[in-house]
Amino acid sequence: MTMRALFKSWVERYFSDEEAVVLLIVLVLGFAVVIWLGRMLAPFLTALVIAFLLQGAVNALTRRRVPHLLAVSVVFLGFIGLLLAIAFILLPLIWNQLVGLVQETPRMFAAGQQLLDNLQERYPQLVTPDQIQNWIGVAGREMTQVGQRALTLSLASLGNVLSLIIYLVLVPILVFFMLKDKDRLVGFTLSLLPQKRSLMTRIWNEMDDQIANYVRGKFIEIIIVGSVAFMTFAYFGLPYSALLAVLVGLSVLVPYIGAAVATLPVAAVAGFHFGMSDQFVYVLIAYGIIQALDGNVLVPILFSEAVNLHPVSIIVAVLFFGGVWGFWGIFFAIPLATLLKALVVAWPRGLDSREHHVAVESLSEE
């Protein structure tokens, strides 16, 4: 079989269905808009994610016979209250601890150098003075680069104050109207799509519950893990407990990798503060228990509809979508990977597949 015949056979198998072609065009246009216009549409996309997150609370209130507008108002006011609490309570605390950590970095660096000297004295055959100097040089260069990046970021952020103000004003307004006029906006979006959209409807119905479960469950997981980590670190008297707790909470966004990455700063701060003492071991044990409970107890409870993806697929999805869309790509890596899997499973495959779907639909109508 020639290459042309092989390509023709492949096209007839996967794109002989008109709706499959339309769905492919919609997907390509959607990804292109997000990639090329994502920065411009960032407030809208952020509001869309938040509205999707809050829609479950609105639905829960309306099921209890609360009027729609009242339910939207209650949920929206709760969202605004949470934003104010973060802005006036959490962010100043994290900023103060971050400033304190930066100021204490030279002392921690000196303590690390002393630790290396002690290792060289105890194990002169394993750790040589040249190795210590190389490690110190590498650490010094890394610290210099981090400081330069922080300075560049702080200088660049001075020009983004207006953008931050726009976010703080636009995003809540967009969230309110997305919640209030959800049916009207969804109806308008559907009017732009072809009337024959059984494939799109089937894929969306498969993905809607999973995406909603994942987004809301992940948000709750961040809150619970971060809060428990903060209380644990504060109980042991670990400095920068709020900063470390936020890092541990956000680490759950990246499966497998996040927990390993968050371990390094926790162990470093505990080691420099407590030294190689029993308190240091207790902190690491407590942190390990938090991660174990999160992976084996909390995640199965929150994510009732488990995403059946191989760990390799999850890591590849995190790397790819994170590289394309940054934070939101990491956050939605698993739902997007699940969407791709649903597309592969539900995609029409030639005439036999269409006849099968027609037979199924006719039986369901009977």
TrEMBL record:
Family: Belongs to the autoinducer-2 exporter (AI-2E) (TC 2.A.86) family.
Keywords linked to the UniProt accession: Cell membrane, Membrane, Transmembrane, Transmembrane helix, Transport
InterPro entries, per database record: AI-2E-like
Protein name (database record): AI-2E family transporter
Single Gene Ontology BP annotation: transmembrane transport
Membrane-related topology note: Multi-pass membrane protein
Any one Gene Ontology cellular component term annotated for this protein: plasma membrane
UniProt source species: Halomonas salipaludis
